[in-house]
User: Which sequence fits this backbone?
């Protein structure tokens, strides 16, 4: 039986950088999730011919929301649903499942690296047939629907058992509970040399992987332990938990602190990686060494030939504008295309689909390639291990040699969190206004050479996107300002700071960027607007 339920719109269902992200309590309001799902389906024609993937990172409210999607999909006459067993699918594996099965879209229930639980965050990433998250025009159309919705359709039936693999049919919808791991593992085997990696991980090389109680734990156990022979226990925090064990599943120096402490201790392993809640972000650490994600993209690109799948050559490389310029030098040296896009993985999709790029990355602990249309934490880990297996060098040696070859971009991101939205908007608008007048001015010895909004013209669909403000200095340093699109309380001002040097390769970023950090505050007047003397989070 199908029920048609009368509803009233919520005014705040606009997707941000990566889907819709809300406080869990907001997402759990009556009809909130149903409204959003029905609004998505309202924008998709001929649902009786369409197939979708459903999965999530295992956070609180996932399984309840999944049952809702299933019932709304049945009521809307969707042809087929592929659902990850127990409601689990990582963001990268989901992209692969979508592409492999030529699905029309997918829903990964995740607020990514944001904390989970009833007091945490909930989210939904909506992908289209490209295998990646929907484009801005599609999210705009969905947002319009959310503002006028008056009813949604929902099937009245028992909850579907998500624990058993198999196929069943309800009304006209076929439902298949699928293994969320196997296809992804097979895909990784087509890219990397698993035999060589097994030799490394069964040697005396010490490896750990922190899944942060997110969705990658089972993937990592299957790949690194079962397939590649790493000792049992190499995967830390391996079981997905609804509240991530009370942790913040964000793989960076602050939130993956216990892993960082281990890697800077006397019995540090040779290598560590961490992934975020939904498995698309990664952090790479060596013994007493941290690899900045911008450098990570640059190093992987420079070493593409060491990986079987890329030996015949790669297309170009792309980064978000806020990411450091390191990979630009590598692209130049390799004579491959280089692109700079707004923040958010969706902007890489057209570049991959049109064979303009093979690799891409963001400063926010994201690296990936065109094997899928999302960033991929396990892929990045396997890539690093492959470089180590081939070169027999440590993470620190590989990175240092890279800096010796190309110079180093010291890089930091300063986040000013929980700013009232109107104040943040005013700060950005005022800053944009004054950019032209800044050119030629000198602050603490740094002279501004250019200052402008970042505008991206997509070479494929010709759309134009404005995202953030960039200040360039004569010595090649840059400061990028933008507001976060993934937060759930107030606004976050992100200030990205980089400085290029060819000597002094092993200093602390905080030391090398002290003046520029101060300059970033002078220019934005963040203290005047927010009262904040310093950032809340530095990564
Ligand atoms: C942040 C990062 C961005 C990333 C996005 C989604 O967005 O800065 O680089 O693509 O999160 O990451 P924002 O708008 O808050 O700066 V995740 O792991 O959700 O998919
Ligand atoms: Co994520």
Assistant:
């Amino acid at each position: 039986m199908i029920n048609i339920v009368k509803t009233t719109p919520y005014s705040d269902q606009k997707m941000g950088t990566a889907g819709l992200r809300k406080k869990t309590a907001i997402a759990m309001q009556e009809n909130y999730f149903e409204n959003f799902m029905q609004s998505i389906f309202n924008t998709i024609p001929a649902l009786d011919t369409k197939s979708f993937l459903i999965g999530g990172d295992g956070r609180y409210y996932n399984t309840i929301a999944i049952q809702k999607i299933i019932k709304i999909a049945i009521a809307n006459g969707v042809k087929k649903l592929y659902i990850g067993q127990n409601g689990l699918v990582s963001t990268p594996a989901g992209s692969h499942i979508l592409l492999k099965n030529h699905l029309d879209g997918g829903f990964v229930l995740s607020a990514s690296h944001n904390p989970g639980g009833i007091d945490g965050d909930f989210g939904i990433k909506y992908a289209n047939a490209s295998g990646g998250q929907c484009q801005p025009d599609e999210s705009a159309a969905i947002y319009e629907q959310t503002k006028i919705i008056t009813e949604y359709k929902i099937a009245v039936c028992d909850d579907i058992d998500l624990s058993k693999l198999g196929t069943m049919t309800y009304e006209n919808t076929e439902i298949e509970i699928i293994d969320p791991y196997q296809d992804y593992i097979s895909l990784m085997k087509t890219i990397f040399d698993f035999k060589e990696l097994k030799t490394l991980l069964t040697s005396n090389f010490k490896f750990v992987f922190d899944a942060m109680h997110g969705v990658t734990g089972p993937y990592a156990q299957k790949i690194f332990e079962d397939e590649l022979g790493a000792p049992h226990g190499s995967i830390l925090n391996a079981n997905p938990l609804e509240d991530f064990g009370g942790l913040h599943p964000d793989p960076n120096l602050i939130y993956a602190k216990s892993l960082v402490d281990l890697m800077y201790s006397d019995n540090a392993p040779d290598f560590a990686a961490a992934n975020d809640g939904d498995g698309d972000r990664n952090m790479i650490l060596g013994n007493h060494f941290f690899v900045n994600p911008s450098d990570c993209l640059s190093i992987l690109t420079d070493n593409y030939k060491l990986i079987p799948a890329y030996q015949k050559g790669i297309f170009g490389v792309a980064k978000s504008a806020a990411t450091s310029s390191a990979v630009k030098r590598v692209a130049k040296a390799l004579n491959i295309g280089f692109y700079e896009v707004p923040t958010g993985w969706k902007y890489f999709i057209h570049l991959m689909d049109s064979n303009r790029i093979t690799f891409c990355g963001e400063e926010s602990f994201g690296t990936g390639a065109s094997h899928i249309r999302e960033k991929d934490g396990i892929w990045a880990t396997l890539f690093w291990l492959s470089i180590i297996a081939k070169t027999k060098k440590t993470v620190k040696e590989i990175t240092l040699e890279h800096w010796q070859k190309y110079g180093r971009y010291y890089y930091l991101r300063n986040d000013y969190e929980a700013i009232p939205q109107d104040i943040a908007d005013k700060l950005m608008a005022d800053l944009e206004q004054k950019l032209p007048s800044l050119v030629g001015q000198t602050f603490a010895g740094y002279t501004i050479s250019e200052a402008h909004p970042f505008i991206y013209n997509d070479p494929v669909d010709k759309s134009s996107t404005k995202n953030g403000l960039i200040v360039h200095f004569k010595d090649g340093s840059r400061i990028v300002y933008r507001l976060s699109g993934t937060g759930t309380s107030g606004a976050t001002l992100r200030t990205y700071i980089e400085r290029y040097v060819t000597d002094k390769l092993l200093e602390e970023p905080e030391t090398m960027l002290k003046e520029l950090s101060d300059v970033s505050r002078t220019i934005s007047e963040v203290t005047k607007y927010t009262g904040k003397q310093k950032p809340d989070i530095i990564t």
